[in-house]
Write a structure and sequence with these properties.
The structure is a homodimer of 215-residue chains. Chain A is built from twelve helices and no strands. The longest helix of chain A has 24 residues, at 7-30. The first copy, chain A, has helices at 7-30, 37-44, 48-54, 58-67, 70-80, 87-100, 106-113, 116-124, 130-141, 146-167, 192-200, 204-212. Chain A starts with 6 loop residues before the first helix and ends with a helix. Chain A folds into two domains: 7-65, Homeodomain-like (Arc Repressor Mutant, subunit A, Orthogonal Bundle); 68-172 and 185-212, Tetracycline Repressor, domain 2 (Orthogonal Bundle), CATH 1.10.357. With 215 residues, chain A is mostly helical. In chain A, helix 5 packs parallel to helix 9 (130-141). Chains A and B meet through helix 9, helix 10, helix 11 and helix 12 of A and helix 9, helix 10, helix 11 and helix 12 of B. Chain A binds a DNA duplex (30 and 30 nucleotides) through helix 1 and helix 3. Chains A, B: Residues 13-73 form the HTH tetR-type domain. Chains A, B: It holds the Pfam family TetR_C_14. Chains A, B: This is Regulatory protein TetR. Chains A, B: It comes from Pseudonocardia dioxanivorans (strain ATCC 55486 / DSM 44775 / JCM 13855 / CB1190). Chains A, B: Residues 36-55 bind DNA.
DNA sequence: CAGAATAACTGCGTACACGCAAATTTGCGC
DNA sequence: GCGCAAATTTGCGTGTACGCAGTTATTCTG
C-alpha cells in the first residue's frame, strides 16, 4: 500500500517545496507586492510556466509556505487519537493543535495577512483540509457514514475559515457591517484557539449524532 | 429602512442584469468557450473594464444568469416559515425548494456544467448563500446565537456545494478516486432534491442543539 | 538493458484580472 | 436650476493564468 516513492514523485515534492520557500523568502525580502511569478520561478530554478503547473495563482505559493502540509497533519492528528474519545473532541483538538502551530512562520504570517489578496489566499487554504478530514472521519464512521463524513469535513473546513477570519479581523481594516446587521455589534476576537473552539462547538452535536447512528 | 432605490442603484442593477443575460445568450449561441468578456461587454453596452467591476471572472456572469438571486430567495423562504417549525426543517425545505427552481434555465445549466471552468464557477455560487442565511438564522437564534448562525450557514453552503457536485457528477468525467478511497465505491447520484436532503441531514442535530440552547 | 509508455517541463500565444487616475454621471442641499 | 461631493465608468498598462504542442526525463515491460 505504501510503495516507496520513486524519483519522479520526490522531485515533484522538491520542486513544490523549492517554489514555496522561494516565494516566501522573496516576499519577506522585497515585500509581497514586489514579487512576480517570474522571480519565484527563477529562484526555484524552473520556468514560469512550470510555476503555474504547481500553483494556480501568485499568492498560493506564498501562503503554502506557512500552511505547509497542515491538511495531512490534521488528519494524522485525528487518526492518532484513541478510538474511545468523542469524535467531535478528537477533531476539535486536532484542528486547534495543528492550526496553532505555524511552524515558526508567525512573522511571515503577519506580513502576509495585511495584504488583502494574500489574506484571501490564506483563508482559502482552509478548504484544503476537507479531503483528508473526510478520509479519517469516514474511517471512524464506517462505510455507511461516508456521505456524512464528507459533509462534516466540509463543515469543519468552513468553521476553520470563519475562525481565521475572526482571528485576523483586527489586523485587517474594519469591514462594512453589511446586511447581516446584528453581527457587527460584538466582535469578540479572542485568541486563535478560542476562535477555533468557538467556531467548531456548534458542529459537535452533528458529530455526536453521526457517531451514534450506524450511518 | 426600505428607502426606494434611486436612479443610481437601479442603473447598477440594470447593468448587472444586462451583463448576465448577454453572457448567457452569447454562451448559448456560440458555445461557452467562444465568448470573450469583450463580446459580453459590448452586447451589454459597457466597456470591458466595467465588466470586471461587476464580475471577477469571465465565468461568473454566465453562471449568475442561471443562479439569479438564489441567495435572497433562500433567505426569504426561510423567513417565511412559521416560527413553530424546526429550524433544520425550515432551512432544508427552503434550500431544496429554491435550488430546484432553476428559473427555466435548465437547458443552459446542462450546457454550462459540461465545461470544467463553468462547472467550478457554478459550484462556487453556493458560497454566496452564506451571508443571507446567516442573517435569517441569527434572527431565529437570537443575539446570543449570532456566532453559531454564521457557522451553521457556512455549513449549509458547504453541504449545498457537495450536493451539487454529487448531482452533476454523471455529467462530468469520472474523477480520480483519490486518497479518500472508500467514497468511490458507492455513488448514489439521485435527483437533486435527494442529494440536497442527504447532504443537509447530517447538520440537523447541530440546528436542533442551537435552537434548544439560548446561545 | 533496450525500447516503449507515461509523466513532467517548457515556450508560445491569447485572453483575462485589476490597480490607477482621469473623465463622466448622479445625488443633494441651497 | 446650480454647483459641489460622491460614486461610477472608462482607458491604459502590467502582470497573470492556462491551453496547446513539442521536448525531455522517468518508469515500465519484456
Amino acid at each position: 500500500m505504501t510503495t516507496p516513492p520513486g524519483l519522479r514523485e520526490r522531485k515533484k515534492q522538491a520542486t513544490r517545496a523549492a517554489l514555496r520557500e522561494a516565494a516566501l523568502r522573496l516576499a519577506v525580502e522585497h515585500g509581497p507586492d514586489q514579487v512576480r511569478v517570474e522571480d519565484i520561478a527563477e529562484a526555484a530554478g524552473v520556468s514560469p510556466r512550470t510555476y503555474n503547473n504547481y500553483f494556480a495563482s501568485r499568492e498560493q505559493a506564498i501562503v503554502a509556505a506557512v500552511t505547509a502540509d497542515r491538511e495531512e497533519r490534521i488528519a494524522a492528528a485525528v487518526a492518532a487519537r484513541p478510538a474511545g474519545v468523542r469524535l467531535a473532541d478528537a477533531v476539535t483538538d486536532a484542528v486547534v493543535e495543528q492550526c496553532t502551530d505555524t511552524g515558526g512562520h508567525e512573522r511571515a504570517l503577519l506580513l502576509i495577512t495585511t495584504r488583502p489578496a494574500l489574506r484571501e489566499a490564506y483563508l482559502d487554504t482552509s478548504a484544503g483540509i476537507e479531503p483528508p478530514l473526510t478520509a479519517v472521519i469516514a474511517e471512524r464512521l464506517g462505510d455507511a457514514g461516508a456521505h456524512t463524513a464528507r459533509v462534516l469535513a466540509a463543515s469543519v473546513a468552513a468553521a476553520v475559515r470563519i475562525a481565521l477570519e475572526g482571528w485576523l479581523r483586527p489586523a485587517g481594516k474594519e469591514e462594512a457591517a453589511g446586511s447581516t446587521g446584528a453581527g457587527a455589534l460584538v466582535l469578540p476576537s479572542g485568541s486563535l484557539p478560542d476562535q477555533l473552539r468557538a467556531a467548531l462547538a456548534p458542529l459537535a452535536p452533528a458529530f455526536d449524532a453521526a457517531e451514534r447512528r450506524p450511518g
